[in-house]
Specification:
heterodimer, A: 378 residues, alpha+beta, Butyryl-Coa Dehydrogenase, subunit A, domain 1, Butyryl-CoA Dehydrogenase, subunit A, domain 3, 4-stranded mixed beta sheet, 4-stranded antiparallel beta sheet, 49% helix, globular, B: 337 residues, two-stranded antiparallel ribbon, 11 helices
Chain lengths: 378, 337
């Protein structure tokens, strides 16, 4: 048990801290779209400094960073009040998936532009009939010579409005067991036949989209990891998605908690012992998430593989985030519910936290099944 | 950074788990509880293995190990719900190591480390029954960052947890003063939290095992999400608990700037989580969980007793808030409004 940073980690921390001080992007624009491009520009800036994808191998432009060094990176971002860079679907999901399953040609073509933010990526997994039950994907890709012809619909596609490429999971064989008939593609979003329709969410904004495919043609060379192997490739993507949650979301929570604390202190609200008690409970939950993320990184490094524990961190995050947002609304007072208030936005946005990236119910299934080893429901 | 037990620490854990699985069965716990007497055979074994002195420096007859190792032992004793005066004795020894003068250490620690004298730790500003004080020969009374060590017997109290002998300090001003040492209090909080973590972990493990084999409607009851999600949530809560406890053990051991805050967080969290998870385990077992024979009640009762001991959840959250206020050196000007 030794929670001090190694000499390498300390040296990196100091370098990166100094670098951020010189390159800080300032405060975020309030408009959703402008904020996205601002975060994309931040990715370019990080890439110029060599910080865009710490965890990627150096041959692809990363630093081959350990998960712990990556956690140091995120901690420093949070400490500086700098945003998490955009295009995380590329850097955390598409990139690692292509590295593991892609052909040499795919690696050469797609990886480097991700870090330069020349390519923005989205993830076409969920469908109206395949949310938590991903294996039920119905969007169909029919083989025609050297091409596949895709028809169907995706939903909840974050950042599709900006994306150049999409990680697309389709059904290519209806005659075999559900999860055996899937194929994973890289879809060029400029292909004819794609309709993007922003989904207006309950905050009034559009982070997510619907995608409609009408005879969209994809070259067979855009399959990742062989026809019929889509389920396994998709699991790789999801595992990488959850691996970033601990570090990334712990920081979002800490930053939000700091904002709430500043408000409470500035207005003397912590003099109320009930408010004080609830706030401190939320602080403990936040610290527990941060520490659990570090502990899981340590354990994964010792074991040499990422496990299902990301599900636990995501459960902690969504639960604490929802509690904190409710607490803020209750303690800040009536002004908090004015339409343009940031408090109201966080409160409304937090409703998605227990649904996006695996609902809390599905994640409890995963904990029960893969962590506790309980017998499966089916 | 390595946020997990070292190989040596894991070996201590495995050894303790194995010894207690054999020598502190629920039959033994129940028998101690029913007779309202410690398991003297187990206590003799723990003494022979040097457990009372695990955290005592070697020059005073102990093993000179750190708070992490001590926490591992405390957790395993909680996991076994073992009925011996070990918890009180290691708490007393640990607080003396940091708060006693070398002359006092010389006088008191060798007999505590050998288990010849049984100890307990109480808080002055508190009438909560003190575990192991009922038969303790030495009581450390902590007050603020100082305290006293007294040989005056406590008033025995019969509580809902008859597997430990509880007591109340008769005269908190008796005995000799100790040095000022916040570490003494922080260390005791960590050890008690680790013990509570063990109680809760056992309750969860028993529930996982039971609901996996108990069948209703022709299937194991764990296949129902109402059951499995309860246990999954308990696991999430204990993941947080384990992170908080072992971070606190490390932080207090090395004198990290976050040590006191971390110890307060651990105690606040475990005071509630330990009771919640052991209580949830009773429910997960159904009717059998409410029976005397199911043994879950020993875990639940001790978790309940230790919750308010050395300060409960609200007290430690209040302490934590004061510490956070002090630590807040920079004011964050960002505001949402």
């Amino acid at each position: 048990m030794d929670l001090t940073l190694s000499a390498d980690e300390l040296a990196f921390r100091d370098d990166f801290r100094a670098w951020i001080a010189d390159h800080h992007p300032g405060s975020p624009p309030s408009n959703v779209e402008e904020r996205y491009y601002w975060r994309l520009e931040w990715l370019r800036e990080l890439n110029r400094g060599g910080f865009a994808a710490m965890h990627w191998p150096s041959e692809y432009g990363g630093r081959g960073a350990t998960a712990m060094l990556n956690a140091v990176f995120f901690t420093e971002l949070a400490r500086a009040g700098a945003p998490i860079p955009a295009n995380h679907i590329a850097t955390f999901m598409a990139g690692p998936t292509i590295m593991q399953w892609g052909t040499q040609e795919q690696k050469e073509r797609y990886l480097a532009p991700m870090l330069r933010a020349d390519n923005v990526w989205c993830q076409g997994f969920s469908e109206p009939g395949a949310g938590s039950d991903l294996a039920a994907v119905a969007t169909f890709a029919a083989r025609e010579g050297d091409e596949f012809v895709v028809n169907g619909q995706k939903v909840w596609t974050s950042e599709a409005q900006y994306a150049h490429f999409c990680l697309l999971v389709t059904r290519t064989d209806r005659s075999v067991a559900q999860h055996k008939g899937l194929t994973y593609f890289i879809l060029d979003m400029s292909s004819p036949g794609i309709t993007r329709r922003p989904l207006r969410q309950l905050t009034g904004e559009s982070e997510f989209n619907e995608l409609f495919f009408d005879n969209v043609r994809i070259p067979a060379s855009s399959v990742i990891g062989e026809v019929g192997n889509g389920w396994r490739v998709a699991m790789t993507t999801l595992m990488h998605e959850r691996s970033m949650i601990g570090a990334g979301y712990g920081i979002r929570l800490r930053n939000y908690l700091t904002v709430v604390e500043s408000h409470l202190r500035a207005h003397g609200l912590l003099d109320d012992p009930i408010v004080a008690d609830r706030f401190t409970d939320l602080e403990i939950r936040t610290r527990a998430l941060e520490l659990s993320a570090l502990r899981q990184i340590s354990e994964a490094q010792a074991r040499g593989s990422v496990g299902s524990e990301g599900s636990i961190l995501k459960l902690m995050w969504s639960d604490t985030y929802s509690r904190l947002a409710e607490f803020a609304i209750e303690t800040v007072g009536p002004d908090a519910l004015e339409d343009a208030s940031g408090w109201a936005w966080e409160y409304l946005r937090s409703r998605a936290s227990t649904i996006e990236g695996g609902t809390s119910d599905i994640l409890r299934n995963i904990v029960a099944d893969r962590v506790l080893g309980l017998p499966r429901a089916r | 950074m390595r946020f997990m037990l070292s190989d040596e620490q894991s070996a201590i854990q495995d050894m303790a788990r194995e010894v207690l699985a054999a020598e502190s069965t629920f039959d033994r716990v129940r028998s101690a509880g029913e007779e309202r007497q410690y398991d003297s055979e187990l206590w003799a074994l723990q003494r022979s293995m040097g457990w009372p002195g695990v955290g005592v420096p070697q020059r005073w007859g102990g093993q000179g190990l750190g708070l992490v190792e001590l926490s591992v032992i405390a957790e395993e004793c909680g996991y076994a719900c073992s009925s011996t005066p070990l918890l009180g004795t290691i708490l007393a020894a640990t607080s003396l190591v940091s708060a006693a003068s070398s002359e006092q250490c010389e006088r008191y620690l060798p007999s505590l480390a050998a288990g010849e004298v049984r100890g307990a730790v109480a808080l002055t500003a508190d009438s909560t029954p003190v575990p192991d004080a009922g038969e303790a020969g030495l009581i450390v009374v902590l007050e603020g960052s100082g305290g006293r060590v007294s040989l005056q017997p406590a008033q025995p109290v019969e509580t809902i947890d008859p597997t430990l002998r509880y007591g109340r300090v008769v005269d908190p001003s008796a005995g000799e003063p100790l040095n000022q040492s916040p570490i003494a209090y922080d260390s005791t909080l960590v050890v008690v939290s680790a013990h509570q973590l063990g109680l809760a972990q056992r309750a969860l493990d028993l529930s996982v095992a039971y609901t996996s084999v108990r069948e209703q409607f022709g299937v194991p009851v764990a296949t129902f999400q109402a059951v499995s999600h309860r246990l999954a949530q308990a696991h999430v809560d204990l993941t947080a608990a384990r992170s908080l406890v072992y971070h606190a053990a490390w932080a207090v051991q090395v004198g990290d700037s976050e040590a006191s805050a971390s110890a307060a967080r651990a105690k606040a969290w475990l005071a509630e989580a330990s009771r919640t998870v052991t209580g949830s385990a009773i429910h997960a077992h159904g009717g059998i969980g409410f029976t005397w024979e199911a043994n879950l009640h020993w875990l639940f009762k001790r978790a309940t007793m230790l919750g308010p001991y050395l300060g409960g959840a609200r007290q430690h959250r209040s302490r934590l808030l004061d510490m956070l206020g002090t630590a807040q050196t920079t004011s964050h000007e960002t505001d949402h409004s």
